[in-house]
Amino acid sequence: MDARGDHALVLFSGGQDSTITLAWALARYREVETVGFRYGQRHAVELECRPRLREKLAAMAFPGRLGEDHLIDLGPAMAAVGETALTSDAAIALGADGLPSTFVPGRNLLFLTLAAAIAHRRDLRRVIGGMCETDYSGYPDCRDDTIKAMQIALNLGMARRFVLETPLMWLSKAESWRLARDLGGEALVALIVEETHTCYLGERGARHDWGYGCGTCPACALREAGYREFRAA
Fold first, then answer.
1. Mind listing the pLDDT tens digit for each residue in 49-87?
2. Sign of CA dihedral 170, 173, 175, 177
3. What's the CA gap between 171 and 165, in Å, rounded?
4. Does pTM surpass 0.85?
């Protein structure tokens, strides 16, 4: 049986990229569900942002389109396979293999597999994520080739015709800010600034014009640079 093509499931963390991705999906599909993951991330404050963002996005411009939310706890499983700078207090640095210490091996592969399992159960065809390889931290599981390979594997393994969509894949951070404005005007931009969380250190104390964060970690640096370019254009 083919899944419903006008229904979608969005990987929604509470961060900037996943919020823009959710808005993009809500603008296109009749019903959109969300899935989030607790995996021992040091910036778990992002999970506290999710309910507020869902409520405000649904009320902003997409009434009646936001469906169920699913939150999966992967903490014990991820802890069992080893810590990284994203799941412990280890320093954020570039490793000998050229990958940042914030890289969590297999994270997005696991997320996509579980999201597809939910989509299979819920009879949803489209699985949508905020992965991007234009302005990003060097994670191999954010690359377009990885997502395409996962789509093939998931369809073969679950006997479905899932479509994995990544609307931010080829956008810079500045372009993703512009997409947010195109989707929901300055109101959506303001919502992203005030309510999303991207800082790897989980810092919500300092409020910058681009949002909350430590201001120095790689995630904050990308977000700030993109916002500056977006506003300068």
1. 999 999 999 998 788 899 999 999 987 766 656 555 444
2. positive
3. 14
4. yes
